[in-house]
Amino acid sequence: MTIPVMEIFGPTIQGEGMVIGRKTMFVRTAGCDYSCSWCDSKFTWDGSEKDAIRKMEPEEIFEALKEAGGENFGHVTISGGNPALLARLDGLVDLLHEHGMKVALETQGSKWQDWFIHIDDLTLSPKPPSSGMKTDFSVLDFIIDSLQRKQKGEFSLKVVIFEEADLEYAQHIHQRYPDVELFLQVGNDDLETVEEQEFLPYSLRRYERLIDRVMEDDILKDVRVLPQLHTYLWGNKRGV
Ligand SMILES: C[S@@+](CC[C@H](N)C(=O)[O-])C[C@H]1O[C@@H](n2cnc3c(N)ncnc32)[C@H](O)[C@@H]1O
Ligand SMILES: Nc1nc2[nH]cc(C(=O)O)c2c(=O)[nH]1
Ligand code: SF4
Ligand SMILES: [Mg+2]
């Protein structure tokens, strides 16, 4: 069963969320059921790079990971696009586990797949109003309920924040799922600048502003506030 792959890269650090800083490889799948206004990976779904999509068997993906990362990695993050569109991704997840890898997944929580049960670090990133997307809470409730029943692996929620309405959305998420770790991530509204010298002070100011705002919030209490760490090092560069 082939998987549409947009890019494979690493090793690098996981720049976001629950395992920030962890050494990992990335497999980025093509295709998304959303079209977030500020998506930093539009090339996975807007058709601009459709010729670069490779249909790959799990074994070919593992070979490509080895080619890029040699023997130097033990963790693979599957992102996209939305990898949860792919019912047969279980073949890749199982193969990576057979090779002793830990497997992480980045998805927005719009679709459930049974293979979620086998993911070691699963990030659900439901989309706030600024994205232009609407959350189907019946699906998200089902996913979170199913993940809470599983024996193995960790999962968390990560909400990207651009504006006040996004914080209100995050408050709602925190109150609806009080037992799930919640990460608030600074939204990046400058997707062009690759030069990190320019990018860093701008991003730091945005991070500080979000911290200040969350500190004075009486609902967002048990949260973590994070930047996209990889952008501090490498700006908007691809494949890092
Ligand atoms: C490109 S998405 C792919 C996985 C999945 N479609 C999702 O959105 O969770 C990976 C992560 O990047 C985040 N992201 C995308 N664009 C961003 C931006 N401009 N600023 C901050 N985070 C962003 C998403 O919210 C998500 O958590
Ligand atoms: N270093 C690094 N960390 C990341 N965390 C989530 C990413 C993504 O685009 O899904 C990402 C990415 O593209 N690079
Ligand atoms: S759900 Fe993820 S990949 Fe899809 S458009 Fe939104 S940020 Fe981009
Ligand atoms: Mg990214």
TrEMBL record:
Protein EC: 4.3.99.3
Sorted UniProt keywords: 4Fe-4S, Iron, Iron-sulfur, Lyase, Magnesium, Metal-binding, Queuosine biosynthesis, S-adenosyl-L-methionine
Binding-site residues for Mg(2+), renumbered to this chain: 41
Matching Pfam families: Radical_SAM
Residues that, per the record, bind substrate: 13-15, 28, 79
Entry note: cofactor: Binds 1 [4Fe-4S] cluster. The cluster is coordinated with 3 cysteines and an exchangeable S-adenosyl-L-methionine. Binds 1 S-adenosyl-L-methionine per subunit.
InterPro entries: 7-CO-7-deazaguanine_synth-like, Aldolase_TIM, Deazaguanine_synth, rSAM, rSAM_sf
Pathway note: Purine metabolism; 7-cyano-7-deazaguanine biosynthesis
Cofactor(s) needed by this chain: [4Fe-4S] cluster; Mg(2+); S-adenosyl-L-methionine
Reaction(s) catalysed by this chain's protein: 6-carboxy-5,6,7,8-tetrahydropterin + H(+) = 7-carboxy-7-carbaguanine + NH4(+)
Keyword Iron-sulfur: yes
Chain sites annotated for binding S-adenosyl-L-methionine: 38-40, 81, 125-127
SUPFAM superfamilies in UniProt: Radical SAM enzymes (SSF102114)
Family that this chain belongs to: Belongs to the radical SAM superfamily. 7-carboxy-7-deazaguanine synthase family.
Subunit structure comment from the entry: Homodimer.
Name by which UniProt lists this protein: 7-carboxy-7-deazaguanine synthase
Organism of this sequence: Virgibacillus xinjiangensis
